Structure formats: structure tokens, C-alpha cells
Amino acid sequence: MKSFYLIFVGFIGLSVGSFINAFTWRYYLKNITDLRHFFKKPVDKKDLSIVSGRSMCPNCQHKLAYFDLIPLLSWTLLKGKCRYCHSRISIQYPLVEIFSAAVSVVYLLFWPSISNTRQLMSFILIILIVYGLISLLVFDFKWYILPSNIIYFLFFLGIFYVTLNISKINIASLILSTIIGGGLFYFLHIFSSGKWIGGGDVRLGFLLGFILGNFSLAIMLIFLASLIGSVFSILLISLRRVSIKSSIPFGPFLIISFMIVQLFGKTILIWAKNHYLIV
User: Fold this and answer.
1) C-alpha–C-alpha distance, residues 209 and 133, integer Å
2) Cα-Cα-Cα-Cα dihedral sign, residues 165, 170, 172, 178
3) What is the predicted pLDDT for the residue at 1?
4) Which residues contact 97 (CB under 8 A, 6 or more apart)?
5) Considering only CA atoms, which of 77, 44, 112 is closest in space to residue 264?
6) How far is the CA of 252 from the CAs of 10, 19, 211, 260, in angstroms?
7) Of 4, 131, 203, 271, which has the fewest CB atoms closer than 10 Å, so is most exposed?
8) Contact criterion met (CB below 8 Å) for 26 and 49
9) What span, in angstroms and rounded, lies between the C-alpha atoms of 59 and 187?
10) Secondary structure of 112-135 in HEC code, one letter for each residue
11) Taking the chain, what is the end-to-end CA distance rounded to the nearest angstrom?
12) Is the pTM of the predicted complex or chain greater than 0.85?
């Protein structure tokens, strides 16, 4: 039975990943005034509607059929090319779908407990928040933006999540966690006049700190995000993919670190305490 749930959640993750690809692309284009840099032929903004728009090939603008939109399978069978014009389809599409599916399965495997209605609601809320964070990861990695509307909506979901778990949360720790999550980025944003850290990173930091609800985990979040970001940046520089002056979005590192800390942070803290690494 557990295998069935893992397969089911993995399939949901694949489908949501496919939706995230379409959503981020249409959301971004809806806010672009001149679309001539993106399409060869004129495009009606209605075709880019998140609700009613039809998926199309960015190159030939052919409306895609349902069999072109099967998560992962369509891209694989088409060998990463458009069925109609044979132009290459970005590797982003299967990667986001696989990542979304993998995250869904990992959350189900390592979530503490889903044995009653409150815990089930809590799990559903956190999965919805995580899917929203994956969309933010795509936005920031691809276009260096973190849409405020999405972050505010995730704050809304986060309030429900925290409320469901309020009996297990220390209010003082929750407040400190929120402040730590975004406070450092806010200081850097003000100090650098937005050159080092953008406003989106500040809002994202406050959001993640609030959802974690534990100041020790918030500190771990900042440390781990900085560590992963530094390693990734050094790797790119050593491979000469970027220069030391290049801008690298920090949001994706925060989001990946959040997932790690939320699932394994308390275990790491217990291990560290048992080994006298912290007091």
C-alpha cells in the first residue's frame, strides 16, 4: 500500500511539475509588453492566459495536442524536439517535472506523521507551499525574479499551516525565526541599495523563516543556503560558465535549503547536540 501512495504522489508531482513549467512561462510573458522577442508571429495575450490559454511550441507556435503534454513521457518519446517543427524543447521541462515528483516522494517518505485529519491537512498545505516554492525557483533561476504575488499567496497558506501546528510551536521562537529568515537579507538589501540582495529574496527569507517556526532551523537555513550557493558559484566559476562578477540568483539556494532543513533539520540538531557540536 505504501508503494501505491509513493507512485501516486510521484505522478501528482510530475503533473504539477508540468503545470509549473506552463504557469511560469505564461505568467512571465503576461507581464511583457513587447512579445516580438519571444515569438515569430503575433500572439494574442488571451492565448497566454494561465486559466484558458493553450500550450504551444515557442518556436512554431503550433497549439499542442494532449498527447504532446504527457509529463516526461511526451518529451522522452519526442526525443526533446517539437513534433511539428522539430526545434529543441528545453531540458528545463523534464527536469522540473522530475524534481517536482522527487520532492513530492521525499516529503511523503520523511514527513513525521499523517495519521489523522489535522496531520493530513498539514501535509497537503506544506506540499502546496513546496510546489509554489518550486515555481519561485524556476522564476529566479531563469529570469532572476521572485514574483511578490506568489510569495504573498504562500504566506497566506503558511498562516493556515502554522495555525494547524500552533500547539507544537513556541511563539517566541516563531517570531525570531521569521526575523532571522528575512532580517539579514533586509539589512543587506538596505546596505547595498538592492545591489547584493533583491527585495524578492527578503520577502522569501521572511516566508521561509515563518514556515520553519524555529529560530535554530532558521539559522541553519541561512547557513546551508550560503554554503550551497558558495559551492555552486565556485563550481561555475571553475568551469568558466560565469565570471566572478556575474550575478547568480540566491532564491533557488534558499528554497533547496528550506526543503532540507524542514525535513532533516531537527535530526541534524539532535545529532549535533549528541556529539557536543552545539549546546
Assistant:
1) 13
2) negative
3) 57
4) 13, 14, 17, 18, 21, 71, 72
5) 112
6) 22, 19, 17, 13
7) 4
8) yes
9) 43
10) CCCCCHHHHHHHHHHHHHHHHHHH
11) 41
12) yes
Residue with C-alpha cell 529543441?
88
Mean pLDDT per 10-residue section of the chain, whose length is 279 residues: 85 96 90 74 74 80 85 92 90 96 96 89 96 97 94 97 92 95 91 87 97 95 95 89 83 97 93 69
Whole-angstrom Cα distance, residue 224 to residue 215? 14
Question: Among residues 254, 10, 208, 221, which one has the least CA distance to residue 108?
Answer: 10
Counting every residue written for the chain, the total comes to: 279
SS (H, E, C) the chain: CHHHHHHHHHHHHHHHHHHHHHHHHHHHHHCCCCCCCCCCCCCCHHHHCCCCCCCECCCCCCECCHHHCCCCHHHHHCCCECCCCCCECCCHHHHHHHHHHHHHHHHHHHCCCCCCHHHHHHHHHHHHHHHHHHHHHHHHHHHCCCCHHHHHHHHHHHHHHHHHCHHHCCHHHHHHHHHHHHHHHHHHHHHCCCCCCCHHHHHHHHHHHHHHCCHHHHHHHHHHHHHHHHHHHHHHHHCCCCCCCCCCCCHHHHHHHHHHHHHHHHHHHHHHHHCCCCC
Cell of 176: 525570531
Q: Is 133 exposed, middle or buried (0-12, 13-18, 19+ CB in 10 A)?
A: buried
Q: What are phi and psi of 251, to 5 degrees?
A: -55, -45
Amino acid identity at 41: K
